[in-house]
């Protein structure tokens, strides 16, 4: 069969019903056959008329295409490319050479198996069509929002979820999304973009549904797999959506507008959907966002069946289109081997870069996978060069298109880094909730629509290269604003402006690049054009996060300086860095400054992008382009100038801070106000005395003039915060204090990197003050409460030392203190706080220092052991700095509780009493005082059950300490309200430690005793009974004496029953003996003794008197039984003390109950104890002697007992001399 006959047979394959039947028009047409047909030149017009040709009619608003020049090629070249070259009809009779090149002429639309679809005729149909197709871009960004915004909330659904696993929630989606897009475009070219579009939405919905149900899985593995399969669905939908639009709309005004609106859905998809995602995660349950996503995807798939034209489906295949001879060519057409090598190479490279920040480059498998990935890409190039139908034909990929994709990759990589670290900056550094962080990004979708309409307007007036230039300017300016945003700055200064500019970068680059590639490629490669853009966008976002993550982990000082790591990654966001050095006039050297460079290269290269199919611009268009470029260049210059000045000042301040923390000579002090040259030049002054960094760099004279206080009180014109001791140069000087030589002067900082200058510290203090003093004004002014974290000196920070030291402290604490005061979640501590990738905040360091108070013995520093007194002073000083800086967090509250317990055990008064009151105020400020039942939705959204119970335990501990310290004087008012009968108790300690507790495991006070409640739950019940006892014996109780005696008797029996149940549970669970002396036993014993003392006072007819000796007849049976139980348990504890280290498990409340028991024995003996009383007195005193090395309170108790024995014996001989309650410390 000759070539003309083969062309005739191929043309007969066209389905006449797939295009409008119009008469043959024009002389010159381009034919694209489906098979590997060579390009031919038709010799006569008759050969054309014999084929039933059908062409699409040009619309009035369409712009005719220019047929590209025809380059003669050999048959082998044609077969490699997979499509024939264009052929022209030549009926000239001038005898010219048939292989001569013809100049381009206007033609109608190209004829191919992928013919142009008819645009929907009605406006309603077209609107529905555009909505369904645009949802591909919308839901693609929604897929990222599903895991980025609520990653921390989702991670709480499983146990022991590390930060690395959280990062894979988004990385797995981006990985498969970016790698499968290219194959999806080829499948759409072969089997129809409409079919792949509908199938992709069905696939997307299926795995969204399963991802929601993965909450019931035992680990995150299934959820991550579901996220990866979700990415495949998004990869199938997006390129075919772009191809559908490219084949439906011919080049023209309408096509430019459609692609502009299509690109505008990207920011809208992330932000509009992100609001609902955050709402569902915080208020309902996070799986509902995935289930609603599945329903939406299924609905779009069904809608696509009806609104997308069927003309986009390929014609029915025949034997000639499926076979070549007798060989089935499915593998060749799909390019299975090319897809395997390409997808595998891209996936391995992506995996290696995103896993490196988690596992580290020191692990061999990371760089081995990276090398293997590059080898697979090399194999992909070899396979594609020999493939019959390559995924990326080299004939359609030119250098101009390469520059276009490079600009898109650089810009969207910048956006991906900025978007990810924006949420980290807002949620981690500034402490915003996910919903608030999404709300701050709300202007982006609105500006996305404006940017899309602006792009549609400009595309008809300027060349796409100028649009790409403007888009890169938007990426650069927005990334620079985000990277240089101060932590304590108001949202409206830079963050708000950044959200207005970023959409212009996205919604200008995508339509411009899409139109460039769509118009440059033939119809059969519209899916390839869409795949290239979508692959470039998604893969650049995913891969750039791996680059940024590596930079962050390498520069954040092993997680101790979060802000430094975030800023380092954000400095990389604009592009590669240019390292420059600036010499200080005094000889000092500034740190390296990172200046965005790669986008500048793209900006410089973008004007050279080929005009492709656009006509030569007119003089007015050139002038308009020059005007736009001039404005953008001026803006970039100003932004870069200000950024470099800010970075210079920040770098100098950071260098000084690092010098100070490294033990070298301390930097110069700071002035209260900026120097006069910087103030006049409106520059950022670091206020270093005697010379600031900017004046030193410029060689100018630095003068600090006195300034009068401004009338404006916030945020300018205020003195430094007086509590910042380092700023004012004040030191703590006490003759008996070891604090001065243990804590060097340091400056409170907003984050672990940036030191707090007097202004920023004062701004934070003022914002916190307004929040507490005038909350209504605070909300009306829309102010933000800053989250400030004072820095920990290097010699005190536990993270600066050997990590094994922290583990030893934790193991010792949880093996001893945690038995009788389970206040800190063991699961959270070991799973997150000790994770090397977790946040190293200052409050965590403070908590570890306070834990260390209980794990070290107070020995002489000369012996090499830790001086606990100095450690206590350091903890108090750091806790004071936290409060002065306005830090409100559960970790700081737990540290304060541990300090109060330590002060109580060491008999440090009145510090213990005052610290408990401060903890009560702190707990009220952060809202842990809410002991009412929370709805299941709150468990599933904002906090996990472990976190809710940890907060509940903190408040119950405060309630317990507040009442326990008032037992000796019930007339003192409490710092907290009494718990109610319906308040929830902590869950079982075992379930809490294992992380398997559920909301149904929490009991209320009103529920009966059960061996499944746990020891700490009994602490809550005992605290409630102690509250009732204090109310009964208090001076404000005016009940009838008989009614009060009945209540006292009933309460005493209830308390005694609680002691019995606690002892039974300790025996059943085989708890160590010290668990019998846990706080609830001390509270129960103290409550019984308190009620007994009240009865003695009532019997003496003087409520202000406490008899120093009493009779056994006047003592209740419960009191005597309690004394017997305490004696038995104390003897068992002493028998188990085989060495002095066993005293670490002793509680300060053990000393208290031993003291109270001994005191009652002294009173019962009336100065003449019998043998049993003497043995018990010796037992309790011996126990106190054993506890003295651990708790100094035991020594105080022994001194009181000695004095009580003398007083009792004296009164027995000379008459009673009662002790009186008094609130006056001088009496």
Automatic annotation (TrEMBL):
Residues 721-736 have a biased composition (Polar residues). It holds the Pfam family MFS_1. Residues 86-97 have a biased composition (Acidic residues). Keywords: Membrane, Metal-binding, Nucleus, Transmembrane, Transmembrane helix. The chain crosses the membrane at residues 128-154, 166-184, 196-215, 221-245, 257-282, 288-309, 330-353, 365-383, 403-422, 442-459, 466-485, 491-516, 528-548. GO terms for biological process: DNA-templated transcription. Residues 60-105, 711-736 are annotated as: Disordered. It comes from Trichoderma aggressivum f. europaeum. This is Transcriptional regulator family: Fungal Specific TF. It is found in: Membrane. InterPro entries: MFS, MFS_dom, MFS_trans_sf, XnlR_reg_dom, Zn2-C6_fun-type_DNA-bd_sf, Zn2Cys6_DnaBD. It is a multi-pass membrane protein. Residues 674-704 form the Zn(2)-C6 fungal-type domain. Its main location: membrane. Residues 129-586 form the Major facilitator superfamily (MFS) profile domain. GO terms for molecular function: DNA binding; DNA-binding transcription factor activity, RNA polymerase II-specific; transmembrane transporter activity; zinc ion binding. Residues 74-85 have a biased composition (Basic and acidic residues). It comes from the Eukaryota. The keyword Nucleotide-binding does not apply.
